[in-house]
Design a protein that fits this description.
With about 180 residues, the protein is mostly helical. The protein is about 85% helix and about 0% strand. It has helices spanning about 1-15, 20-35, 35-45, 45-60, 70-100, 100-110, 115-155, 165-175. The longest helix has about 45 residues, at about 115-155.
Amino acid sequence: MKSFTLAVALFAGLGVTPIYADSKSADYIVSQTVTKEMFEGAITAQRSVLISAIQHDFQKNNITLPDPERFFDLFLAEFIDEFTESMRAQSAEIYLQNFTSEQLVDIATFFKSDAGQAYIAATPTLMLEGARMGQKAGQKAGQNAGKRLAKRIKEENLIVFEDKNMLDKLLDLLK
């Protein structure tokens, strides 16, 4: 409250619109777009990758989880609220740094509209489906890139191993 009062006092004396107007729009945008549901959608899309990474980290320490799915759910329950709050605070600053006051008001107005609310409601699904599409596209692109890279490594002699068997293993893996 002190910051708000100080900002109003400073800007009122200068005849300038207080930054609070910008901040109010940025805070509204963040309240609509940086939500627990949004992050849960993104995390759900990457669930199997995240669980594998957790298992790998634990296995490096000789820990094998009896139920990795349950552990992930327990961890997520402890993680998500703090993560969301931290992201909200940072996101508001990013909006303030990258948009004018007028743009923030326009964006907030859109999110208050029926179309904006429909967009917000659909965003977790759009994120989930986008991540699934990205995973498939990434796998295919990765396989194709590996084949092209193997060809270039062989033709252009880009990587040299002392042991030729290592080069053959690398090329076979990339293909």
